Amino acid sequence: MIIPHVNLLGFLALCCYFLTLFPTLVKIIIPRFKREKLVLLLQRYRRQVGILVFLLSVGHGLSWLIMNHKDIFEPNFLWNCWHGILLLVIFGLLAATSNNWSIKIMKKNWKRLHALTYVAMFVMGLHVWDKMSIRWSVLTPFSFCLVLASIGLFGIRVWIQRTTKKLNVDPASSSSV
Question: What is the pTM of this model?
């Protein structure tokens, strides 16, 4: 089965996005793996991978527009594509501020802005569900799995952080295994 390049670009963007979330999720959920080479490598190049997510997303969106001969000024365009546009805006902001200069200038606000990545996770879930649930391809089950894994692991991370905060324990050091 041939996978359209539009779907492939979207799937690659989703995979890279998951890779940006992975190091933090692993460090909180399975602290003993925080020094593994893969986790350290992903942590080190997280910003570059995030920029790649944005570029792949732009390629995905532009390819979809061209392939489907869509007019962005069409009345229903925004209604039908709001989640894709919102993801592009979020990823654009994150990519534009994924540099040391932005961290230095924005200080605490940089972390607040980059917390939008968790909003993007849920919007990504809506986007994948809305667009792929009708048009299944070979990539659809993998896309659903990645989105559900991201949201599920994020839920576990939040739960761990809240329970350890109530106990005044550092989640990274709470593992005795």
Answer: 0.86
